[in-house]
Amino acid sequence: MDIATILGIIFGVIVIIGTIQYEGNIGLFINIPAFAIVFGGMTAATMIHFSMGQFLGIFSVIKKTLLHKAVPPQELIRRMVNYAAINRRDGALALEQEIPKIKDGFMIKGLQMLIDGQDVESIRELMEMEVQYLEERHSMGKKILDFMGSSCPSFAMVGTLIGLVSMLSKMESPDEVGRGMAVALVCTFWGALAANLIFLPLGGKLGQHSKTEKLSMEMITAGVCAIAKGESPTAVREKMQIFISAKRREEVKAQV
Amino acid sequence: MDIATILGIIFGVIVIIGTIQYEGNIGLFINIPAFAIVFGGMTAATMIHFSMGQFLGIFSVIKKTLLHKAVPPQELIRRMVNYAAINRRDGALALEQEIPKIKDGFMIKGLQMLIDGQDVESIRELMEMEVQYLEERHSMGKKILDFMGSSCPSFAMVGTLIGLVSMLSKMESPDEVGRGMAVALVCTFWGALAANLIFLPLGGKLGQHSKTEKLSMEMITAGVCAIAKGESPTAVREKMQIFISAKRREEVKAQV
Amino acid sequence: MDIATILGIIFGVIVIIGTIQYEGNIGLFINIPAFAIVFGGMTAATMIHFSMGQFLGIFSVIKKTLLHKAVPPQELIRRMVNYAAINRRDGALALEQEIPKIKDGFMIKGLQMLIDGQDVESIRELMEMEVQYLEERHSMGKKILDFMGSSCPSFAMVGTLIGLVSMLSKMESPDEVGRGMAVALVCTFWGALAANLIFLPLGGKLGQHSKTEKLSMEMITAGVCAIAKGESPTAVREKMQIFISAKRREEVKAQV
Amino acid sequence: MDIATILGIIFGVIVIIGTIQYEGNIGLFINIPAFAIVFGGMTAATMIHFSMGQFLGIFSVIKKTLLHKAVPPQELIRRMVNYAAINRRDGALALEQEIPKIKDGFMIKGLQMLIDGQDVESIRELMEMEVQYLEERHSMGKKILDFMGSSCPSFAMVGTLIGLVSMLSKMESPDEVGRGMAVALVCTFWGALAANLIFLPLGGKLGQHSKTEKLSMEMITAGVCAIAKGESPTAVREKMQIFISAKRREEVKAQV
Amino acid sequence: MDIATILGIIFGVIVIIGTIQYEGNIGLFINIPAFAIVFGGMTAATMIHFSMGQFLGIFSVIKKTLLHKAVPPQELIRRMVNYAAINRRDGALALEQEIPKIKDGFMIKGLQMLIDGQDVESIRELMEMEVQYLEERHSMGKKILDFMGSSCPSFAMVGTLIGLVSMLSKMESPDEVGRGMAVALVCTFWGALAANLIFLPLGGKLGQHSKTEKLSMEMITAGVCAIAKGESPTAVREKMQIFISAKRREEVKAQV
């Protein structure tokens, strides 16, 4: 679970509710037509822009973004170095017993090909294709979230315009402008809040996760290929350490 | 027919009309000069920007975007594997009987060249040229829709300014501002709605269709070239499966 | 002459004048200081941004954009196929008699080099250099029009601010705001109209023309080089048809 | 001296002052706090963004942009053709006497290396490095001017907000809004004017100068290298003419 | 310490406070809910967008940006020339005594590899990898600052909307609008100020530092590799001088 995302959302909600209560009353901002137009309009535009499958997949994308848990690179190196040692000592088939302990589907697929005795080049090609496919899937998720983030303020404006036109056309005296304007501006508030606190930052986080996950997969690919070539645990460690910073590299040395 | 597009438009219209009726009266928003300036101005600017042919072609582009029906990639693979089997068993000429059953013009062209006995390289070259041409035609459609989407709010502003200037210059007392402002803001409403509910999302959908269709055509190209080389149905399937995700690949295996 | 551009401008002007007359009075919008600040300011900024030569050249660029007449690609192919036939039958010198009938300077230059007996490589190099030079000249024209289009609304805002500050500082009561505001907003109106109806779409059209003209010149280059190599009319046609769509290709076959 | 820049600034100032005087009174716009916040804030942000050296260099960059005088390419070709003739007739050392007559430091450096008898490849490498360095220096100047242009309206908004908050919090009745608003909007006026009449167009001009100067230097490099290879004046002219348009090429032929 | 950054911030604060005091009263702008919503909202969005580690690292990034002290390139060249002389005279091991005097971790690492007798290619590869890693770390810092800069005005708008809605819904007469509006606009003020005086310029400065530091590291890499090849002090100087401008090069010649 990504602590920063959860903390950020909680902290943001507290700040917003606190400010609203300090200045007025949260009841003012609970406005059904405002929700309908901002979130309904955004949903409609997102359905028109993307396909049904992409649209329905957005919830699983958001859930993954919130619950995403990256394995630290040092841990990845530690594991692959162990597998290299097992491979050297007992042969590739001995790795079969390790597979049930692994959760990461990508690492399982790599080791399975290694156990099946496929040659290094076809292992590398298949694993790199998976990395590329994941990247495209993630970039689609980010694209949808960014579109939702840019769509919210637009429909908020549409909602505010509906409110203003209705209010202005039926008001009797300028004294009523204030109250009607307040209601109309609630739409703009929700559009700005949803875009800037939820959709745009979540899209950014998905981009960060995508980078991290791509790095992990590239490290696993490098490790599996090195094991497939029968290289020593030390050589496997060195090939995987290229991907991490000098400072973290020392920590890894201590662990193995 | 693309369900998401149709559902999105219907849902969006319901949300907008519902909100308008809840807050006021839809009659307020039916305003001929507002329609004239937003859609007339946008049409004029689009004609100046693009050529007559491109401008008139926009309706068929929108129709195609709404009615577009992609053949699922597994279906494409299944067909091409069958053609490979026929080609192996009875020779390329036996494929002649299959052609009347195919609807996709691109697949027909590829198979026809195969039956005509053209060499693999010239088949690949011609088919890739078609893919590139389609991409350019689609990107032109997306460019027109995006221009329309950015033009609508601009002419909406022009319309609102005309309304404001007219209203302000003939009003007698500030009490009249409200009603006049309501009429002027209806232009801004239509500009924002047309851009964000119709033109920008349709442009985005066209971009999605373009990607899907390009992928299909690349898969067909890979398949036809493999058949032209006389490869086995299994080899044809493997070459086409490279383009789809691991999860879908398994489904295909089951079908063939 | 480009019909769409002319029709678009006429249609746009009718829509704008119609709406203005319906809502108020066109006299309100004829405002000398507004013209001075929007078009004067834009002219000044354009002079500062570009060189004197580029600035003065903008009128010929606009004129060309309005009067541009592209030769249809089928016509180009038909002519070059004829020249190939003449070249085969009577030799390159016989093409000399065709030159006075040609209007396109680029085609004349190409044929002249062919008649002069220059080798294929130097003909291709020189013609490609011309294409590149034309592209840069066109992209400069588009850059100037786009700068003008982004400059108009900025100076419109400057003008509206001048009007507002002057009006607000001398008004006696809030009842006068309306009339003064109307005058100030006329600037914003002209800036938005000039940018969105004239400069930005014209810049877009210039970009379209540039693409079309580049394609024509590339087709002529391909044709002249094929003739210079002494290829047959059929080979010349095939080399030039690569640049046009499959649908149009059939029409050409029928004509030749 | 660049006539268009000077004329543009003068014309722009006349248009602005004329409109102000026609609508009100220039005294309204002379407002010390507005100048302080727009130009002070912009200066502060520019110092934070760039280094001290880059910040102080901006005045010499602006001066150069105003006083920049490009040598026409035909003149460059004429000179280099003369040097080629001298080199052929009297040897490279005879060029020593020409150097005191040259003002352009880049041409002097090129000829000096030629006189020193350095080989063609090291001359070309050094001259190309200079071109690249100049480009980076110019692009830094453009970057600073563009940042200033985008910073001005932002601090203008900050200034207007300070004015509005102060005015609104101490006003007794809505009748005073007008006068206070006028003062606050003067900030926005100066920000929009400085950005759109001065900084953004000057940044654009610097970009144009950079292109022109780069072309000149590339022509000189081509010329010096051709002379260093001992090529004939005609060959030198042809190698340098590649960089200019066909129309100008004929003029050059007439002069030499 | 970067003088321009410090001076810019001090100067900017003086200008802002001076203008506020001249026009009103700084007390008006000290508003706890405004700070809460602008800086709290921005912090929440930044936590959602980036990971916990990246978020906490932003303070050390800002500190480094303020305190960053680049070693002048001439100084770098002088040192490396000395090391080259020592290497030639007494061998690589004699450089061991120089290392404690060096502060720059990157130069130490380079020399250490040289002393350890690693071959030129692996030294270059490792040093270039470090350069690339630093660039990515810096670009992440710039990305966070730019996101904070774009997030501030968005939450300022949210805060202003909260203030407006609360104020408008409880006001009794239009005379109260002024005071309430003043409070609401304070949010917009802080958002615009924080973005344009602090976050966006600091992000820009980080980009400048990154460029400078990358250049230094590339110069050190070139120098260490030249020393590792056993080249003469003169050759080392020439290889490193390629990275600096002609004007500075002469100064270096005088010093060595």
Mean pLDDT of chain A: 86
Number of helices of chain A: 10
> Which assembly state applies to the chains in this document?
homopentamer
The residue fraction in helices of chain A comes out at over 70%
Question: Globular, elongated, flat, extended or rod-shaped: what is the shape of chain A?
Answer: elongated
Offer a few descriptive terms.
mainly alpha, homopentamer, 256 residues
Would you give an account of this structure?
- 5 copies of one chain form a homopentamer.
- Chain A has about 260 residues and is mainly alpha-helical.
- Helices cover about 80% and strands about 0% of the residues of chain A.
- Chain A has 10 helices and no strands.
- Chain A starts with a helix and ends with a helix.
- Chains in contact: A-B, A-E, B-C, C-D, D-E.
- Chains A and E meet through helix 1 and helix 8 of A and helix 2, helix 3 and helix 7 of E.
Short description:
The structure is a homopentamer of 256-residue chains. By secondary structure, chain A is mainly alpha-helical. Chain A has helices spanning 3-23, 32-49, 52-56, 58-67, 73-90, 105-115, 120-170, 177-228, 233-241, 246-255.
Secondary structure blueprint with pairings:
Five copies of one chain form a homopentamer.
Chain A (H helix, E strand, L loop, with lengths): L2 H21 L8 H18 L2 H5 L1 H10 L5 H18 L14 H11 L4 H51 L6 H52 L4 H9 L4 H10 L1
Helix pairs in contact in A: 2-7, 2-8, 5-8, 5-9, 5-10, 6-7, 6-8, 7-8, 8-9
